[in-house]
Amino acid sequence: MILKPLLFIGILILGIGASFLPTRSLTKPLKETRNVYMVPVHDSTKNVVAGSWIRITQDINIGKYFDYMDSLVSVYDSVVPYPLSEHLLAHANPWIIDTLANTDYYRMMARDSFVYDQRKLLVLRLSDSIIIPDSVTASNIQNSFKKTHLDINIPEFKLRIYKDSSLLYTFPIRVGKNTKKYLAMVDKTTDLRTKSGRGKIVRHEKDPDFYNPVNHERFYTTKRDDDKTTLMPQIPWIETEINGIRNGQMIHPTTNPETLGKASSNGCIGTRESDAWIIYYYAPLETRITIRYHLEFTNGKGEKVKLNDIYEYVY
Question: In terms of CB atoms within 10 Å, which end of the chain has fewer, N or C?
Answer without folding.
Answer: C
